[in-house]
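Run log // design_07
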């Protein structure tokens, strides 16, 4: 059996083994470690760059996710189609066609949050890769009628933010991010959500967003699938590092220490690290914060949690039920959009299938007792329509949405890159075969132009077209899969639309092994 993990060399840390094809599986070291090697592996690079090698590189222009191969993943399940009937539409071949599948979802205590598609971006925050692609993410999400979450630390990282007596009173970046989304939101679909960690809460970011920016949905954050500590970023500017230190962040090394300042100025190191604090969850504190947000005017309160141990998942489910949370997002191990420590990303936490299976068990226990069950979103490496279907089916009927971040960012980045190539008249051959303009290259452009009009369409950045077009593909692909299962509405997707391809996958998920699916019905049909 192949090893689950790759150790000591990765493109993520810009490291490699000298003996690339002869590596010790347990340690990841070269079979022959030679005196005189310049240190290309993680051990070697750590010998001269130390803690810098903990993080994926180069920071600010990449997203990262674990290389670990988990024992069970969503590819170990298959979608079960059928040749019989239709659910949600009349069983008529002229009516039950895949374009008729409804992908709309409504959530919230009043079902007032409406989304055209059953997915959302669950949290992209203060990293450069998020900030530099925000136009595409915000406008593309709004045009598609889907939700977008502004992640942690955006205000704290903003040099334009004005903080008085420890509370934010004005912002540049957060205001811009919210407004970009709202400017393109139409017909009440979608939502812009503001997330908060420890530092954001101390700064009063969510209260500011509610009262000054008109944000209706806010999210408490316990963590994500990539790390079990607070968020990290790199800071290449001394003044900014000192500003963040003044705002209460943990900045390493200490940017106000004269010896550190001199070392930085002479080039001993190039970047500071900004770290967020770990939260200290208690039921009393959680209940108090939810009440504070509702009193501040929050219409919807969400909770995002990561791949922590099962007891923490149980807390997230129980607290969300007791305090009537509108959406609980559960993020499986291995994902990430920013700068999570590389080994942590690979080696901590509960993988998605196991975490989502536990989540289903816990939610069902509450439902069986007649207790409130919040709408739920699952995240953890989802990218395409088959995975979206499986995520919705695994947690049905409780899971209403699938969270994705790296894939939408990738779509926005590609769209942005193509837009620059068009403007520079340097469209690559691979793309040029489709044309040399936005209307020719982006397959959704013509319909959007008709819908919006020429002048408004021309204002749409290419990054937003990239995200919108990617979403259009997901929508059509998901409709086709659902029609094959004869499920013509998202709320009709169920766990029996899946089969496990291995006994281990069945044991983990409770989804029957493929050879056991429909056994009783098949016996009845056969008359034996």
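design_07 sequence
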């Amino acid at each position: 059996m192949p090893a689950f993990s790759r150790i000591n060399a990765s493109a993520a840390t810009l490291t490699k083994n000298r003996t690339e094809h002869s590596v010790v599986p347990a340690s990841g070291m070269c079979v022959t470690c030679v005196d005189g090697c310049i240190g290309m592996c993680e051990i070697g690079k750590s010998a001269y760059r130390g803690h810098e090698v903990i993080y994926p590189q180069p920071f600010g222009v990449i997203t990262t996710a674990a290389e670990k191969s988990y024992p069970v993943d969503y590819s170990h399940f298959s979608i079960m189609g059928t040749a019989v009937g239709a659910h949600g539409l009349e069983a008529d071949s002229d009516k039950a066609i895949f374009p008729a599948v409804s992908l709309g979802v409504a959530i919230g205590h009043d079902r007032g949050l409406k989304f055209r598609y059953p997915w959302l971006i669950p949290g992209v925050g203060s990293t450069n890769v998020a900030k530099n692609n925000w136009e595409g993410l915000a406008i593309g999400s709004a045009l598609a009628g889907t939700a977008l979450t502004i992640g942690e630390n955006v205000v704290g990282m903003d040099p334009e933010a004005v903080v008085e007596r420890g509370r934010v009173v004005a912002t540049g970046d957060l205001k811009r991010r919210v407004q970009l989304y709202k400017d393109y939101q139409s017909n009440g679909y979608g939502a812009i959500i503001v997330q908060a960690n420890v530092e954001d809460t101390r700064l009063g970011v969510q209260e500011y967003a509610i009262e000054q920016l008109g944000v209706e949905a806010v999210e408490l954050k316990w963590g994500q699938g990539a790390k079990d500590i607070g968020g990290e970023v790199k800071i290449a500017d001394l003044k900014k590092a000192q500003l963040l230190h003044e705002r209460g962040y943990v900045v390493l090394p200490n940017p106000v220490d004269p010896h550190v300042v001199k070392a930085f100025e002479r080039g001993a190191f190039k970047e500071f690290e900004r770290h967020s604090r770990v939260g200290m969850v208690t039921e009393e504190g959680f209940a108090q914060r939810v009440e504070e947000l509702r009193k501040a005017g929050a219409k919807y309160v969400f909770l995002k949690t990561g791949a922590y141990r099962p007891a923490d998942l149980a807390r997230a489910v129980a607290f969300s039920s007791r305090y009537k949370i509108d959406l609980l997002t559960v993020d499986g191990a291995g994902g990430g959009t920013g700068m999570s420590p590389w080994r942590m990303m690979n080696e901590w936490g509960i993988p998605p299938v196991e975490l989502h299976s536990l989540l289903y068990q816990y939610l069902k226990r509450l439902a069986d007792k007649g207790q409130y069950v919040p709408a739920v979103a699952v995240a953890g490496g989802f990218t395409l329509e088959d995975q979206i279907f499986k995520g919705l089916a695994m947690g049905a009927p409780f899971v209403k949405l699938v969270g994705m971040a790296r894939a939408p960012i990738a779509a926005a980045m590609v769209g942005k890159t193509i837009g620059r190539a068009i403007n520079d008249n340097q469209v690559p051959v691979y793309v040029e075969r489709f044309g040399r303009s936005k209307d020719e290259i982006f397959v959704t452009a013509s319909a959007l132009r008709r819908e919006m009009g020429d002048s408004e369409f021309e204002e749409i950045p290419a990054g937003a077209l990239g995200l919108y077009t990617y979403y259009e593909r997901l929508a059509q692909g998901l409709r086709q899969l659902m029609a094959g299962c004869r499920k013509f509405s998202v709320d009709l997707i169920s766990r029996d639309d899946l089969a496990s391809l291995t006994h281990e996958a069945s044991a983990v998920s409770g989804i029957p092994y493929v050879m056991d699916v429909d056994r009783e019905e098949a016996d009845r049909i056969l008359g034996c």
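The first strand starts at residue 77 and ends at 79.
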